[in-house]
């Protein structure tokens, strides 16, 4: 039986579907689990909503992204977690075989233009709205959020998720 990060926090059906999706995408299932743990506060709930942005679900689909996938954030929130994974798979499909690192999997969610870029790639700078929305990721407080800085918190989730307590 394959063990993945946070495997003990989700159902067997959820875990199996994540592994299948990641096999099809060419990425590590633990990377996707760490990203979903980060985006949902380790709850892995389809109805997790960001009160500021309206982003919803396992990977925090923005309303415009949901629309592009042929659904709405309301419909995504009403789905089962396993059901919502179909939309997660659909969302990631354009990045198939490009998701070799944890930071690239997370960038596919946060800022797809950064997939495949160096860890020092700057995504957001002062005074942009994007910087203001993500300034908490600017760990060295230099007015710029790099890919590496943004992925650092997800790396912490991966480490936690792979501990004996959560790996399964």
Q: What coarse outline follows from CA principal-axis ratios?
A: globular
Please tally the β strands and state the result: 2
Under the CATH scheme, the architecture is Orthogonal Bundle
CATH class: Mainly Alpha
Reconstruct the topology from this structure.
Blueprint: H1 12-25, H2 29-40, H3 63-68, H4 73-78, H5 81-92, H6 102-110, E1 122-125, H7 129-134, E2 144-146, H8 147-161
Antiparallel strand pairs: 1-2
Give an overview in words.
The chain has a single domain, classed as Lysozyme (Orthogonal Bundle). It is mostly helical and 168 residues long. The longest helix has 15 residues, at 147-161. It starts with 11 loop residues before the first helix and ends in a 7-residue tail after the last helix. The mean pLDDT is 96. The chain has eight helices and two strands; from the N terminus they run ααααααβαβα. Helix 2 (29-40) packs across helix 6, helix 2 packs across helix 8 and helix 6 crosses helix 8. It has a two-stranded antiparallel sheet. The radius of gyration is 15 Å and the shape is globular.
What's a quick, concise take on this entry?
The protein is mainly alpha-helical.
Task: Fill in the keyword field for this structure.
mainly alpha, globular, Lysozyme, 168 residues
